[in-house]
Specification:
The protein has a single domain, classed as 2-Layer Sandwich (Secreted effector protein pipB2 fold), CATH 3.30.2450. The longest helix is centred in the N-terminal third of the chain and has 25 residues. The protein is globular and about 60 Å long. The protein is of the alpha+beta class. Helices cover about 35% and strands about 35% of the residues. The protein is built from 4 helices and 8 strands.
């Protein structure tokens, strides 16, 4: 008589812990916003005003990169943040938009300048790669081979699994020009008190 009661108690206890454990793993917290611009998506009970200006685009074989200036305002508090939006549209894939805060633009410019000057003679080893990633996941990368003398440049969202857009050295330099234009536009906006 005691044995069936113990078996029933053990089964019920085991099923309680299994159910409890499953419920705990299903309640994962969302990741916090990576950028100041992204943080506006968590504002509730207020109107969020978003403004943007297209600066230009770079078309490559596998898709298009569109560079925009972005300003977001919480109308309840008047708090504003400025930066850039990079829209990556690849053939046969969903469009991806990455936000870059104003205070990251200078380091992005430095990264682009460094990558455009890369040369296979920079290392005696056979291959190399160099990359820079913003807080929001915009990744610039270069991959080079001494054997072939070729350096390949790419951009992608580091947070998700998607194919990169492949750029030539000239297209990477064009991206640098668009980033410089974005900085100048945002600096002008900030001087006017925007």
């Amino acid at each position: 008589m005691l044995r069936p009661i113990l078996i029933t108690a053990a089964v019920l206890t085991g099923s309680y812990f299994t159910t409890s454990s499953t419920a705990q793993t299903a309640n994962t917290a969302p990741l916090p916003p990576a950028t100041k611009l992204e943080s506006f998506n968590t504002n509730v009970s207020s109107v969020i005003f978003r403004a943007s200006s297209d600066l230009g685009s770079i078309s490559v074989n596998t898709g298009v990169l569109v560079v925009k200036c972005r300003e977001i305002t919480d109308t309840a508090t008047g708090h504003k943040e400025q930066g850039m939006a990079m829209q990556i549209a690849q053939k046969d894939q969903l469009e991806d938009r990455l936000l870059i805060d104003y205070d990251e633009i200078a380091s992005l410019t430095t990264a682009i300048e460094y990558l455009t000057k890369l040369d296979v003679s920079m290392t005696p080893l056979n291959s190399f790669d160099a990359s820079s990633t913003t807080k929001g996941g915009f990744r610039l990368a270069a991959l080079g081979s001494r054997r072939t003398g070729v350096i390949q440049f790419s951009i992608r969202d580091a947070r998700i699994s998607m194919s990169p857009l492949i750029l030539s050295r000239q297209e990477l330099a064009q991206l640098g020009t668009l980033v410089d234009q974005a900085k100048a536009t945002l600096d002008s906006l900030r001087q006017r008190g925007g």
